[in-house]
Amino acid sequence: MILWAENLYIGKKLRRKKDSTIASISSRKLTPGVYCIAFASNPDNLFDIMDANQLLFPHYKKAEVKIVGLAKGKEEAISLVHDMLLEVYNKTGAFNVRTYFT
After folding, report:
1. Alpha helices (H) in the chain, listed in sequence order
2. Strands 34-39 and 47-51, sheet pairing
3. What is the pLDDT of residue 55?
4. Which of 7, 26, 50, 93 is found 20 to 30 A from 84 (Cα to Cα)?
5. Residue 54 per-residue DSSP state
6. How far is CA 56 from CA 15, 25, 28, 85, in A?
7. What percent of the chain has pLDDT over 70?
């Protein structure tokens, strides 16, 4: 199951296509070149960066994935995670991303 953060972070290259990209991912369609930033599946990590098409795998029909960011390309996704982590740390002094983004 895909859950979307209320304050979704969007990379610059994807801003114009935000709504159609979210609709495509939600309806389980191919979404080439788009990367999702989600809360980590491993509780020892902060985020998972995954190709949006990974969400088409059967495992993700049952697993809960909370997406907090979208980017066009892996490099932009890494840059967006960097910006998100800086924001969390600057505002809270810690890296508790799950609390900050919920």
Report:
1. 18-26, 59-62, 74-92, 97-100
2. antiparallel
3. 94
4. 26
5. G
6. 23, 9, 6, 27
7. 100
CB-CB contact of 64 with 3 (8 Å): yes
Overall domain count for the chain: 1
| C-alpha pair distances (Å), 96 with each of 34, 60, 61 | 25, 24, 27
The chain-wide mean pLDDT, for the chain, equals: 93
Domain with 73, as residue range(s), is 2-100
- CB 85: neighbour CB atoms within 10 A? 15
pTM: predicted TM-score of the whole model, two decimal places: 0.91
From the list 87, 92, 25, 33, the residue with the least C-alpha distance to 60 is 25
